[in-house]
Amino acid sequence: MPDVVEANAKKKLEASPESHEAGSKGDQPSPLRRQVDSLMCGDERAQAHAATVSGDKRAAKQIDFAPLDSHRQLQSGEKEIFRDDGSRVIADKVVGKDGIEVERVLRVEKRNGSISEYSYDKDDPTKLTSYKDTINTCYGKTIVSNSVREDDSGTFKYTDSEGRQEKHLDTHIEDGHVKYRADDLGSRIMDKLLGPSWLTVDALSEAKEHFVEVAGKRLFNKNPEALERLVDKLIHHFQEPGKTGIKPMSDDKLAAFFASVVKPLETDRAHRKNGAHALSDREIEKATEQMLKTVFNPELYNNQGQIGSCYMNSIRYLAEKTQLNRIGQVFASMYTNGSVKGHRFDADDLRPLYGQDYYNHAMNTAFVKMAGVFNKLQGDYRGTTTPEAETAYKKLFGKEFPVFSLGQGIRQRDLDDAIAKFGGAACITLGGAHAQVVHKNAKGQYVLENWWNGYGGNEGVLSRNQLHFI
């Protein structure tokens, strides 16, 4: 049964059994599509909206973005250290303001050609003041960035050669790696709810390599080559979103995602807790496979089954598009500790149920628990109201998302802003009885999605008239 937002709409929908059917994927429109069409009209092609890149490129040009040399000779007082990952570290020893001698990282040269070089305060030689990175990405680009300290709390201003500017919080060097917390509002709120999410500069190549090494022995018929191809496609999908209107995802967030989702595979059954302890290793593998397929193509694999969880599926779609590092964090916590922020998951929470697979059911259950609606997600779930959906999303991802009523007049700018921020726009359809998502495809066209009962496809491209732009 679809979600219920308004009691009257529920009665009206339940009176028509055909409205619950997924419909054909052929030329015939589904019953749900026909009901949506009754709210809308027209056949005008939607206009493409080019993806935007944040930051002031004019300001970025004033900074030196010449790449660093690939190898530097040692100077007096310096030594070189070769790490297990094949990188070369140049360090020296200095006496801090407290009189204690410490080892200081000056430069890191990675085996893929990436280089980081660090500068320190003259009066306090242990205080990092700036650093410059030349990063050779795993998808064939070279990005040069400069990060400069703004205050004593560890806030650094990041600017790169592609014009992107960000603030990084609590920046510090740990084992020769620069780590920081993201400064966007959602990340700051989520740090309070789920604990800090530390991002590591230039960690994507290593995180990808480690994930493929571990997971390649267990996933997708133990075929590491096939898994690596999928991972490469996933990275490209998030880095080059085309005309979907979504901001490209940073390497550091993608690295955090892979570093998280490998943990259930690295944790043996004896060390898993709560419901995760009850699952076999093969079940953990299936959950990981289904998670990877879904985040790569949620339009096809996002599935609410026969549970009235369309609102949860819709807001989860938004998270999968723009909050992938947090999706990985929640997934890893569920399938290793069997808990997320004090909410416990039993085996039934983590297994397929009512037409949902492992990942779809577990992640939707996480949203339901965070919303405080039900302790378990099953066939008698009554559906979600808009306030409950917003509460769940904010608790998990630290943001409030806008909700549109499809066919009742929408400002195009507001819709495009929502798609850029959240990967899609949550829309109420069928007079308030159903929740769906409008997003943009690779051609920049607006598309309406449907998650009911494994429908596995979109309802179709929407025109400006159908969207009732005002």
Commentary on this structure:
This protein is of the alpha+beta class and 470 residues long. 36% of the residues lie in helices and 21% in strands. The chain has 18 helices and 17 strands. The strands form three sheets. The protein has a ten-stranded antiparallel beta sheet. Strands 13-14-15-16-17 form a five-stranded mixed beta sheet, with helices on both faces. A hairpin with a 5-residue loop joins strand 2 and strand 3. Helix 4 packs across helix 16 (386-397), helix 5 (204-215) packs parallel to helix 7 (251-261) and helix 12 packs parallel to helix 16. The model is unreliable at 1-61 (pLDDT under 50).
Please render the helix and strand layout as text.
Layout: H1 7-14, H2 31-37, H3 57-60, E1 79-82, E2 88-95, E3 101-109, E4 115-120, E5 128-136, E6 142-149, E7 156-160, E8 165-174, E9 177-182, H4 185-194, E10 199-200, H5 204-215, H6 224-239, H7 251-261, H8 263-266, H9 274-278, H10 281-296, H11 298-301, H12 310-322, H13 324-337, E11 339-340, E12 343-344, H14 347-350, H15 358-371, H16 386-397, E13 403-405, H17 412-422, E14 425-429, E15 434-440, E16 446-450, E17 457-462, H18 464-467
Parallel strand pairs: 13-14
Antiparallel strand pairs: 1-2, 2-3, 3-4, 4-5, 5-6, 6-7, 7-8, 8-9, 9-10, 11-12, 14-15, 15-16, 16-17
Helix pairs in contact: 4-16, 5-6, 5-7, 7-13, 12-16, 15-16
